[in-house]
Amino acid sequence: MDVDRRLDLADLVKRKSCFLFGPRQTGKSFAIRKRLADYRCYNLLKTDVFLKLSREPQRLRQEIGEDEEIVVIDEIQKLPMLLDEVQILIEENGIRFLLTGSSARKLRRTGVNLLGGRATEKRIHPFVCGELRDRFDLLRALDVGTIPSIYLSDEPFEDLEAYVGTYLKEEVAAEAIVRNVPAFSRFLTVAALCNGQILNYSNIAGDAEVPRSTVQEYFQILRDTLLGDDLPAWGETTRRKPITTSKFFLFDIGVARHLQNRTGLRQGSPEFGEAFEGYLHHELRTYCDYEGKRALHYWRSSSGFEVDFILNNQTAIEAKAKRTISDRDLRGLKALRQENLLTHHILVCLDDTPREKDGVAILPWDLFLERLWGGEYG
After folding, report:
1. In sequence order, which residues have a C-beta less than 8 Å from that of residue 305 and are 6 or more positions away?
2. Ranges of the chain with pLDDT below 50
């Protein structure tokens, strides 16, 4: 299915070379075929291409003409030695490169040439609602996630199982990131059960049956391979003392639910509320990355007031997967509003009608996303 992505690859390399990273199957190769089909592309997943360039990296300089503007190298982490040739072509011929990969971890760990500021770095995420438009179904997105190949699949649950297995085999075992793959697999399940919660390394270590230091290392692997992100605490309030411990979210709610051994989501269940918050985090994180280094936090006071997200130090956002909103649902936003620090205070819910109560905007989820991507919240 042809889906227009918000991240325009042609625009990314309009002025400067770019590393484009993203978890497997998030659509890097498809976007290249669609948006950069007219340019030379080296796909290092192809055995003949890989063998040719691994034997003779200098062939890049021999094959790429001086009049070429853009060249794509897909899965650059498979052959990092090519980056020296890429640098020469950037400096001498002014070629702009799009260099893609599942993560920068392998490149950074091996100490290879990362082009010393000659290339920007971007990240591609699973689908957001605005990309799918009328093909977006909220319940499906919350249940199976929005990794393109899985969301559009006729057998999404089977594909999720294969996806997680492929990640463990290819990203972890094949690259020897961790020595004990069964322990890492147990950790993934525990980490998924903590999705969207405040990190407590000691508790997670006990549940995963590994040392606390190992848990910290494993979470760093998730960050480095782009399978998860910290959500830092926002500490600007003065009337109520904020806590400072981060939360952690996996990159896709479908992957998180599969690792939790959960399928068949029902609206109104506690799982639905957790998935709704996790999906809203995905939309906000993607917005921040695509729009360029915008800040995303959550807020919680030591006295128990909490707001799910603080966007760009301007907008407080609470997610409630329900139609009927009570005063209790507004409690955190109203407490934060008393600080007079933010411009917008928004509760995102399943109601169809936007309204305002006690200075808080109550918005349907789809209207909120439309306004978010339209730039109304800074």
Report:
1. 240, 299, 331, 332, 335, 336
2. none
Return the pLDDT at 292.
85
CA distance 39 to 5: 19
What are the CA-CA distances from residue 61 to residues 180, 227, 267 (Å)?
Answer: 41, 34, 56
pLDDT tens digit sequence for 145-162: 999 999 999 999 999 999
All domains of the chain in start order, with CATH:
9-123 (3.40.50.300), 129-373 (no CATH)
pTM: 0.93
Backbone angles phi, psi at 239, to 5 degrees: -70, -35
- Residue 344, CA atoms < 13 Å, CB-side half-sphere: 23
For 88-100, the pLDDT digits (tens) are 999 999 999 999 9
């147990």: which residue's tokens? 186
